[in-house]
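Q: what sequence does this backbone want?
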């Protein structure tokens, strides 16, 4: 299900399943897809690969390691791994974990999915990757470099009755519910968003979020 307006898109979990479907987001955002991946068992990981897009992993739980162009980084809850187009990356988890991920709109040859050096040729690099430590990732990014399109990327835990005050947005803002649910008011429209649902809100929209029973969400601001 899609609820579409000039100022917002709300995408249900059932419509947000194809990781490379570039039609599940509006044209006014750089995001191609924003998807939640429920809990997976320890030992899970992905092999070295690259993309014709930027990708972000937002680890909500678990511990492990991520590699970007042969540089190793520790992964803990709330760690964000930004892999720009053309970077070879992988991760390996040592505990059970869940995460959300973002893919920007495709560029260059517009090839979907994982690309491999041995099959698809060496990548053309763009900029260095970036890892935001889970403990220190508590707000806007201090130094995101020249390519990263996101000012903020993090997992947030809300308690019963918490809310995000009514605000006219100065930038595009995107919310993905992982645990619990949120009550969203945007431009006079009210909806509940549940695990796997995404609310994509355009700069200039007026929004309010309320969490009656608490929730855990992934937030991305452009």
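A:
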């Amino acid at each position: 299900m899609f609820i579409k307006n000039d100022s917002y898109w709300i995408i249900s979990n059932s419509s947000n399943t194809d990781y490379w479907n570039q039609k599940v987001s509006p044209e006014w955002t750089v995001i191609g897809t924003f998807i939640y991946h429920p809990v997976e068992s320890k030992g899970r990981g992905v092999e070295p690969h690259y993309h014709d897009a930027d990708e972000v992993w937002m680890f909500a739980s678990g511990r492990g390691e991520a590699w970007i162009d042969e540089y190793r980084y520790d992964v803990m809850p709330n760690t964000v791994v930004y892999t720009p187009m053309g970077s070879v990356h992988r991760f390996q988890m040592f505990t059970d974990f869940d995460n959300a991920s973002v893919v920007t709109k495709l560029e260059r040859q517009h090839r979907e999915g994982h690309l491999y050096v041995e099959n698809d040729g060496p990548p053309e690099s763009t900029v260095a990757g970036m890892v935001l430590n889970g403990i220190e990732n508590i707000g806007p990014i201090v130094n995101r470099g020249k390519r990263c399109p996101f000012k903020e990327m993090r997992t947030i835990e809300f308690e019963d009755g918490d809310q995000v005050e009514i605000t006219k947005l100065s930038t595009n803002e995107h919310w993905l519910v992982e645990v619990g649910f949120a009550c969203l008011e945007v431009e006079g429209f009210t909806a509940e968003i549940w695990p796997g649902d995404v609310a994509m809100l355009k700069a200039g929209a007026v929004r309010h979020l309320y969490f009656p029973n608490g929730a855990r969400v992934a937030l991305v601001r452009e």
